[in-house]
Amino acid sequence: MLRFSTAGESHGQALVAILEGIPAGLNINTEDIDVDLARRQKGYGRGQRMNIETDQVNILSGVRYARSLGSPITLLIYNRDWENWKSAMSPTSVDIDGKHLHKPRPGHADLAGLMKYGVYDFREILERASARETAARVAVGSVCRELLKEFGINIYSYVETIGSVSAKISDIDKTKLQHLAEMSFVRCPDKNASKKMIQLIKQANAKGDTLGGKFTVVAENVPVGLGSHTQWDMKLDGRLAQSLMSIQAIKSVEIGMGTKFAGVFGSAAHDEIFYSNKKGFYRTTNRAGGTEGGISNGENIEISCTMKPIPSLSKPLKSVNIHTKKAENAEAVRSDVCAVPAAGVVGEAAVAFELARAMLEKFGGDCMEDMKNNYKNYISRIQII
Ligand code: EPS
């Protein structure tokens, strides 16, 4: 079974991920992982922290001569900012001036976490709640993406909305979306909307405010048959949603037409089925977003996520000092103004992990060769249906 967990505080020494279940014989290059780590760091609207960090992966286990061994893969990313936090985040000695925080930010894990864990300084909560952790998830996703590439599966994302500005995605040739998104400072394929989004982020920054938005992740070439209708926790759409919803600040996940399904008749909601000798079964629409009954149906997986505006405002909201219980403004801590472009890259990683997991369940194998043979047999069986 494919699984991973991460460890590390935002201003601690490093982030670590352990990924278990990757078969032996997969090519894994640190350079490829670093490309995704760098993509996650970009995007107009990120804070000063991104000028400090240059995320690079160190592979501590599970890979030899750039090939997986089938053993747990440990990925480590140092926090360069640790140099500035050695004392405040020391695992050994107490720092009484240690950047303690007492005025919880509405919308952050600060207050609920502080109450739940019985701490008196919510730095002990935010350090782990921070979206810095997503660097480790992107490294994991990058390895999973390499596995998926072996089967021709390509994953990309684009930003659709930032605040009140929405892109006109339907006007753009689908084959160009990936390239255009990579070219944009906000990872939005619509050039006009990109400009407006940047303006809006500038305005939010000037006002000490923040912005959220919406991004879409697309997975192409996914075979029919990942996930299963037979049990609630095997349904691919549910598993993708869980993986994406767990990304910091994500508040909704929509598959295919998503919430738009509510407003249409059934005749405009589903993807009619056709057959030709050349193509086999095919559809001319993909309203379902690539899953039916919790099973991938061979169409692109298309899944959108809404991210709330970041809760660290430089013009802070009202809060209460946890010691005096007096009304005060929330802590104003360094943060991003908008991280939707980065979240799209994290979304790709979440989808890559979940699809790699489903591929391994279906095609298994201790080594890539076995997995590929299982895949080939399956594809030739369904081609004759
Ligand atoms: C984050 C706050 C900021 C972001 C951070 C997420 O960090 P800092 O408090 O150090 O300025 O930069 O994101 C990252 C460090 C990252 O790598 O994405 C938060 O509170 O979630």
Which overall shape is indicated by the principal axes computed on the Cα atoms?
globular
What spatial order of strands do you see in the largest sheet? 8-7-9-15-10
Segments where pLDDT lies below 50 for 5+ residues? none
Computed structural class? alpha+beta
Order of helices and strands: EEHHEEEEHHHEEHHEHEEEEEEEEHH
SSE layout and pairings?
Blueprint: E1 3-7, E2 14-20, H1 30-41, H2 49-52, E3 57-61, E4 63-64, E5 67-68, E6 73-78, H3 110-117, H4 123-129, H5 134-149, E7 154-162, E8 165-166, H6 177-183, H7 191-206, E9 213-220, H8 236-245, E10 250-255, E11 274-276, E12 280-282, E13 291-292, E14 295-296, E15 301-307, E16 318-320, E17 327-329, H9 340-363, H10 368-383
Antiparallel strand pairs: 1-2, 2-6, 3-6, 4-5, 7-8, 7-9, 9-15, 10-15, 11-12, 13-14, 16-17
This protein binds ligand EPS.
The site of ligand EPS has 16 residues, from helix 5.
